[in-house]
UniProtKB/TrEMBL annotation:
Annotated ranges, domain Disease resistance R13L4/SHOC-2-like LRR: 89-192
Protein name stated in the entry: Putative disease resistance protein At3g14460
Key words, A-Z: Repeat
Gene: At3g14460_2
Gene3D superfamilies on file: Ribonuclease Inhibitor
Protein's UniProt keywords contain Mitochondrion: no
Membrane-spanning ranges: none
Stored Pfam families: LRR_14, WHD_DRP
Residue span, Disease resistance protein winged helix domain: 1-47
Amino acid sequence: MAQGYVQPMGRKSAEDVARNYIHELFNMSLIQFVNGKYVLHDLLHDLGHLILQHDYHMMGCDLVQRVPEDAHFKRHLLSVVIALEKSYKFRSVRSLLIQPSHFTFKGESQVLHNLFGTMKCLRMLDLSYCGFETLPDSIGCLKHLRYLDLRKTPIKCLPESLCALYKLQTLKLEGCEQLNILPKGMSNLISL
């Protein structure tokens, strides 16, 4: 939904439409329910990798030092650990999932500030389960952001600049037990 692939239909919300799509995919045996979540069938997963290898790029912690030269053409980074000094190569990234075990070090707020200033095309940002206590004001630079997942983070307050993300459709804050203050301009998030 964060990429805009699922749209509301008539009186059905985008979430209801997506739920129907998942049900149809399950009935056609294209996805399976395993360990409490839906997963793509292995053969279909491999086919998808083959077809989308030029648009998607996956990096793991063993690849941090070897960022591909063509990475700036990749539009989606999944399960990412970024070689931060090379983040300028990822300007057109649209999806970013940061795994918590790979992103726990001092100065993380400055790192996020640099990423948000560079990755202005982001539509989906998942920081769930990471150890971030604050989000930098530069999150307001992510004008195309539609999905922000901050579940189970020790974040204490959200920056006022978050309220400039008019396209934000989903904001997940479940389990943010230390979150005490919401920005005053939350009503500006008209797509939420």
